[in-house]
Design goal:
Layout: H1 3-25, H2 32-39, H3 43-49, H4 54-74, H5 82-93, H6 101-114, H7 117-131, H8 141-158, H9 164-179, E1 192-197, H10 201-210, E2 219-225, E3 230-231, H11 236-241, E4 250-251, E5 259-263, E6 266-270, E7 275-278, E8 284-285, E9 288-291, E10 295-297, H12 305-308, H13 315-326, E11 333-337, H14 341-353, E12 358-362, H15 374-386, E13 389-392, E14 397-401, E15 404-407, E16 410-413, E17 416-419, E18 423-425, H16 427-430, E19 449-450, E20 453-458, H17 471-490, E21 505-510, E22 514-519, E23 522-526, H18 527-541
């Protein structure tokens, strides 16, 4: 290692130690002495790199600021509309917000107070917006950069939201109101718009089937998602358990000239006016709409479950779950409510991640995973017994509070409770005035569109289908939707009935070395099942069409 590399490593060690201490003790309570002891450097070495404790804040913010361009480029966000691009910048800057709000606030407040670097970044973003005719040509960029900065500082000082998304929603609403006067209306009025809501498994497969060559010249493809990358939701259990990183469960969206990525949150669908209402932004119009907004936890009316449990249903919530599980004291009790595939995989992965924890898996049924052959169910049960995970059968969770849960009204203390006991469609879908089944999913025709509107399709967890929601089902449905649209655009005849979607099977993990599943009529257990799942995941990540 040369001298320059050693200096860089020393600086990073000091920064890492400082951030960890700030998260757990707070900025004011942390001393330079504690930072140097944690980083295993001399106090004099610290001052060679940082003249004051406050200067750490400056370095942390500058590091994030310098890396934002790489983030924007990597995830293809340069083509975003101006406000979505602005939100993408803030989202990256606030990447640590879910870990410690106070430290994140202090870092950016310090940079705004002490440096003009952030102002220069806003001038650069505004300048690009002007070049792309999204910003009025006579707008004073320096003035508006200061306005963006002041709004950011104001929100850092006053916003009490606990999540990054909540913070961003309020900030973007404020910015939209202020910036509206210099924004221009853009869009190709002659182009028809195919809008895909949600970049999950169904939305991603739509993109793959339409791009690059199967989209008519007069159709514009727009993907709306709150995140700038596709998330491997089936792997959230590993992220929550701490055995995989955030980066491991991301896949970039396709980088295609004919794809417009719109980074934002859907508030409401107006199917009468063909409009998608976004939080803090102007609505988006559509000619063809594919709704793939996914699902949320369903708490079945259990008091306290929505407030006192953790989730693996979204990236944001899974990050919070990971942070909680990672910081639990040794020998803590963790309760997982719901012994379906998600609960089983989370419990087993958490056992491998934290062998000190007491893990309880609550199952409503008599036998774990009853949808699988008995041999597989017994295999999973035996694995849990061998690895000291308590499976509590015939459970009935009647209440949850901050200290634990009640099973058949008997209190069981828990340091953390993860809810995997049911899902329901996204709230936007629940609020949509259309026919739904008993589970709240939208009733569709055989061609996957609304009975009363052939231009509105639904894919994935929000669609009423014969099978339980899954990534495979969403992908199979997406392929049929893409086929229907392409035939319609070409003027070709569409089959009156589409074939049933064939599922290849189901594979589950029991940690990193063991698994279970069914492929066709064959039941699999052990290392073979785990290797198969790893192979399927690898192929998916590399866009091999699995």
């Amino acid at each position: 290692m040369n001298r320059s590399e050693k200096k860089q490593q020393t600086q990073e060690s000091i920064l890492h130690a400082a951030v960890e201490l700030f998260r757990h003790k707070g900025f004011e309570a942390t001393t330079v002495q504690e930072i140097t002891e944690t980083a295993e450097v001399a106090k004099g070495t610290f001052f060679n790199y940082f003249p004051t404790k406050e200067s750490l804040m400056h370095t942390l913010a500058k590091d994030r600021l310098y890396k934002v361009d790489y983030y924007i480029k990597t995830y293809g966000l340069k083509r975003l509309p101006f406000l979505s691009k602005l939100r993408a910048h803030f989202s990256y800057f606030l990447g640590e917000y879910h870990l410690n709000q106070d430290v994140t606030r202090l870092i950016w407040q310090h940079l705004i107070e002490k440096d003009s670097l952030l102002l220069k970044k806003w001038e650069e973003v505004l300048s690009v917006g002007k070049q792309e005719e999204e910003i009025e040509s006579n707008a004073n960029l320096s003035l508006w950069a200061n306005i963006i900065n002041s709004h950011f500082y104001y929100m850092l000082s006053t916003c009490t939201e606990e999540t990054r998304d909540g913070f961003l929603d309020q900030l973007m609403l404020l910015l939209h109101t202020s910036l509206n006067g210099i924004l221009t209306k853009r869009g190709h009025r002659a182009m028809k718009k195919l809008v895909v809501l949600g970049g999950g498994y169904g939305g991603m497969r739509i993109l793959q089937k339409m791009l690059p060559n199967d989209l008519p010249d007069d159709v514009e493809l727009i993907l709306v998602d709150k995140l700038p990358y596709h998330c491997l939701k089936t792997e959230y259990y590993a992220l929550a358990a701490g055995t995989e990183s955030d980066q491991d469960v991301r896949v970039p969206f396709p980088k295609e000239e004919r794809l417009t990525l719109h980074f934002g949150i859907v508030d409401r669908i107006d199917k009468n006016e063909n409009l998608i209402h976004l939080r803090g932004e102007d609505p988006i119009s559509y000619d063809y709409l594919i709704i793939g907004l996914g699902c949320e936890d369903k708490y079945h009316g259990v008091p306290g479950a929505d407030k006192h449990t953790y989730s693996i249903q979204s990236m944001e919530k899974t990050r919070r779950t990971y942070e909680t599980l990672n910081n639990l004291p040794a020998n803590s009790t963790v309760s997982v409510v719901g012994a379906g595939l998600s609960g089983v995989e989370l419990s087993s992965e958490l056992r491998e991640s934290r062998d000190d924890l007491h893990i309880q898996l609550f199952d409503r049924g008599e036998t774990i995973l009853p949808m699988f052959p008995k041999r597989l169910s017994n295999y999973v049960q035996n694995w849990f017994e061998k690895h000291q995970v308590d499976v509590i059968s015939n459970s009935d969770i009647t209440q949850v509070d901050e200290n634990g849960l009640y099973n058949h009204d008997e209190f069981i203390e828990s340091k953390a409770i993860i809810w995997t006991a049911g899902i329901q469609p996204n709230k936007v879908v629940r609020d949509l005035d259309v026919e739904k089944d008993e589970k709240g999913r939208i009733v569709l025709t055989n061609h996957h569109h609304l009975p009363e509107n052939e231009n509105i399709f639904v894919v994935g967890d929000c669609a009423s289908l014969p099978h339980a929601p899954s990534a495979q089902l969403a992908e199979g449905q997406a392929e049929q939707i893409a086929m229907v649209l392409k035939k319609r655009w070409k003027g070709e005849e569409i089959p009156k009935r589409l074939p049933a979607i064939k599922l290849k099977g189901v594979l589950g993990s029991l940690g990193k070395k063991h698994g279970f599943g069914v492929m066709g009529d064959t039941a699999l257990t052990g290392r073979v099942a785990r290797l198969l799942k790893s192979g399927v995941l690898w192929m998916y990540k590399h866009h091999s069409g699995v």
